[in-house]
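Translate sequence into structure tokens.
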Amino acid sequence: MRRERSIEPDWFEKLYAEKGDPWAFETSPYERAKYDHTLDRLPAERIGDLLEVGCANGVLTERLADRCDRLLGVDVSDTALAAARARLKDKANVKLERMRFPAEVPDGAFDLVLLSEVAYYWDSDDLRRAAVFLARSVQSGGHVLLVHWTGDTDYPKTGDEAVGELRGGLKDSFVDVVTERRDEYRLDLWQRS
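Result follows.
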């Protein structure tokens, strides 16, 4: 049965506390291929300010860090963030914060916001909050990159529903640059008009 409300932080904390790497970010061939695809679709060789929502244990964050000047990674799980901090301790351009996005949002403006495997955890209210943040905080000419699994879940939204609602909330403030589907996920890149 589908959840009606955004998934609470305690759900993620319990998963990370019990399993360490619950989605096998470190070892999964699916995750590695998806991360390669994500990096291939970054809108530039070098990104100024990047926000990664749902940085988890920092596996993708570590790869992104070499492509940007400043990276802010946020997550709701203290256990996941502890693993990310250990992994990224030598990356001076990376800052990690506990944050329940989009109910809590960072200050500042970003050249790129990455939403990878997170938007389907949010209900419609949180998707609207995320759209407001993106419209306000992505710099002119900046981008939003979304990567979401498209299978069935008990989450509030499917990947397709979450991306569609978020895109609808942005109206004409962004243009579609890339929309790609793979067997198990979709990748979307939008640019601030």
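Note: The mean pLDDT is 97.
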